[in-house]
Structures
1.
Amino acid sequence: MDIVDYLAQVTSNGPIAGVSLATLRGGERHVEHYAGVRGVHDPLPVDAQTVFEAASLTKPVVAFVALQLVEEGRLHLHQPLVEICGEYVPDDPRARRITAFHVLTHTSGLPNIVRADAPLRTYFTPGERFSYGSSAFAWLQRALESVGGAPLETLVQARVFVPLGMRRSSLQWQERFADNHAQGHEWEGEPVPKRRLTAAQASWSMLTTAPDYLAFVRAVLAGEGLSGTTHAAWFLPRMNGRQGGAAEDLYAAHPIDPAIAWGLGWGIEIAQDCCFHWGNSPGFRALVLANRKTKDAVVWFANSARGLRVAHEVVPQTVPGDHPCIAWLSIGRL
């Protein structure tokens, strides 16, 4: 079944409310597909202007800005963040070693999410191993704002969204999105109240469309905005991921995954020379996957907790080849 028919099917019979998908073929825009509705708040069809929550697809964009600041000599990847913008984790000597490099490679030792019942702390020595740690990005954000001299939203607008023509993108809610945005839905279709953040969050707050995010991916694959040396360094496999179905592995409970590693803000399929990232926020799912050799790529956003599950049909038709990230993410089927 081709993608058009498949997406129409899965958004018409209930599992997923809506999907926005865009692809590259050989580094050029190829096709876009939209299916389903924006949500219970707005039954109109999803289209090219529908703004979705990108969740952790925010991280590669923030990494891009960080690397630009590195090239300008403002940020040093291996300088402890405490020296740049002060303490973030109190009474934790190991945390004083955390650098931007540790944050971007998910080797900081900090947990994925800060929990009310667990004081923020490191669980292992920074740089020792991989454990997906979104919480560390708040500290990196402070550093970027300090050396960049502006709020993160301002930095990203100036360095990414405006130059790439990403007019329907922001790291915080914009009233101009009110006329066409998606609302999230959980596993059984129950709607999630819409969040309207007034401040950027480096780990997860990006709002965007599939065509906008594809503009970023196209620039990434073309090597725009960074020197050749820095661009190559962006995608070097720095630390292998862990097996076990959960990217966070604070206690080294799972063995090393030889097929998956992390670069500076990107997941890396080592043998395939592909980069990827997924997004997971209440009622929303997203995935971006790009082959750096062929420059084929796909990105999609879904306003449903089941939204990653279209991967088994979508990925083979858009970025051909074996993709161990699907198994690493434990993506089930609809």
2.
Amino acid sequence: MRVNSLWRRRLLWSAGVIVTVGLVTVGGAGWYYSGLVIDPVHTPDYPLMVTAVTGDRVTLSGGADTAAPGTYGLAWADGNAVLGPVISAAAGTVTRTVVKVVRGDLRPGVQAYLDRSMWGHATPAAAGVPYTDVKIPSPLGDLPGWRTEGTSPTWVIAVHGRNGHPAEALRVLPVFHSLGMPVLGIAYRNDEGAPASPDGKLHLGATEWQDVADAVSYARAHGATGIVLYGWSMGGAIVPMTVRNLPDAPIKGMILDSPVLDWRSPIALGAEQMGVPHFMVSVGEWVVERRTGLSFDELDHLRHARDFKTPTLVFADDDDATVPVGPALEFARIRPDIVRLVRTSGGGHTGSWNVDPARYERELRAFASSL
């Protein structure tokens, strides 16, 4: 009996150690994975290498989207260029047309990234639109931004994506400028040059919408009587959250490009691409909620789709490898009365403009004019 009792105690002790180690391991992995979702990152990633430059042609190696059809920027540490169509593709390399080198020296050996926003971290001057630098008061401190001029009392507030930059809006500025609509491009909490959130973490729209609300107040204080909110990627999560929280604001329309309407979908896709076990996705989500106080259910705009009344234009690319298009398609299916859906293919995440600028701008102009 004494031997059995000792054996039982040792077995229970061993089992307890194994469970404890397992929980610590899973918890640590969940903490690490949650950080990939909510930790701000502003260090540029240059996955491409320029291997040859010949006249108006550049050859690139690396990356997964260098052969995407359409028009793109190519950005490197001290320069950027505008790239046109693919000329040829071989194993591991792609050769594209160089439309123009905007600044810097495009040469072999340069490390770069394909830039869907076209001009890197530039100002509206890069798109040929006059602008003024502004500061938007907020409880966290002044938010930096810029404002283009216009005669219309309806302003556009541009909200960039996760770890992004207001320059994401530059592609569409000429359309709004031609319509006389001022555009307010904003930085929000945890952006470079902007105040940090109290915990220094991204809240995926759960608190960032407050900064957009401050931008709405700024626009109204400077003469805006109507507002169009325009969001890319995570900005497409922040914009509908703003609309839900400001029911009395004069928001006349939403424009959403590759929007995150349900955070569980891109998180699960990212985990799959990284080879993260499926059960760890739920652990990571749970840790995110514990670390930030946000609720994935509250951030799921499909759950609240019936509550929206604002006319909405949605751009979604079928080859988006970052944010699955399913939620955007479902949002349009649920609310065909207010949603105009524009689907493209080949452009990837926030690449609907790049793959077909003429169509994109035509849809944009028609929607903005209808408001």
3.
Amino acid sequence: MTPPGPVYESELTWLSTRELAARIASGEVSAREALTDHLARIDSVDPAINAIVTRDDERAYERAERADARHARGERLGPLHGVPLTHKESTDTAGLRTTRGSPLLVDNVPARDALIIARLRAAGVVTTGKSNVPEFTAGSHTFNPLFGTTVNPYDTTKSAAGSSGGAAAAIAAGIQASGDGSDMGGSLRTPGSFNNVVGLRPSNGRIPHALPADPWKWLAQPGVLARTVDDVALLMAAVCGPAPGAPLSIQEPGSVFDRPEFAEPGRHEPGSWLAGVRVGFSTDLGGLLPVEPAVAAVVGSAAETLAAAGARVDDVLPVLDDADEVFRVYRALDFAADYREIVRNHRDEVKQAVVWNTELGLALTVDEIVAAEEARVRLLASIEDFFSHHDLLVLTTSQVAPFDASLEYPRQIAGTPMRDYLEWMRAATVISATDCPAISVPAGFTPDGLPVGVQLVAAPGKDVELLLAAQAFEELTGHHSRRPAF
């Protein structure tokens, strides 16, 4: 499927967020002009992909006009001043509906912004709407009964993944250059892989969970996506830093991401940051995961790229035997905490996967929860040991390439049946359980032209170093520059 009629494209369409923000700050482009361009691109290409599900055009123009007035008065501008952006549908936006893809929440309008949204707006973003998600963000394929299915700009018969699938598809399609999302079991990384964009799951506390939300949550993390690592760093600089009511905050300010290496990649030899970096590499986690051969071939080439840049690549891996138990138990607990009343009162009106995962959490025994806590301690010890002699872990992001969008999830991978809707995401979920920052970076394409990402993982707290490595890989390969056909 291609967009109906002529496709709208301008000189602004494929600018990075940093480039667009610079043009607005210089007065070369007004915030109103940037917004008009953004909305025209949505009108042109979104009918083919269904990424943007809520529009806020009238108030967006009011925001843009206020931004231009501040510019005219010579006021101090934020780093994202005037940049138009849609936000993930499941993330609270004050005054703009947040349905989580469920008809039960069709009229839900939050009174306040989630922290990541508040910080983006404080940095100058002009909010324009919301991007699609799976129902209650359950699963890594974006479809729901309220808004339908988001499809992949590289092949509109295929999945855009999820749960940040609407955001990733919008970025890949030239609607915006970057955006916010969240990741529990790969919800930033898998859409990154499927849509040939960059998806970062940060360390816990980098973008804090703050009151009135549960400040002790750790499995699900807010994060960002973009077409380039540079733009990921730009947004991270705006949204990171400690917050009141967030006791697990990392105390470093967001400015740690404001480094010249990101803004000026041409100032050094491409890939030079990788020289001497110690890398543990595997396409299948030492046989732990089934992986489609076409995906394994693309990810396997990443090892050659890293080695050619001077990285010290070996096949040593952390022991991840406890990761499945940790992820599944803590995910079930989070689902029980978030959705138990909805499932109890509206069981027949909720996606079966949500019911199943919530009831798993409600059925957990004290012994099972304590065992998962003990497993998490062992897993942390394994990660500590691995990163005492390695700088990076480099892996497959998704075990499959983008699959048929009419499916709920892949029922088998490389001949191995998937027991449930979580099983096919294990390349991402086992890393979520480690609490490490992880990023998916474009790694190439299958023979059918479908995007494949490679997953880079660093020690907890090493988000900046992770982005430096990811940018070095991006510079060497250039896969991010391959755009969809429209």
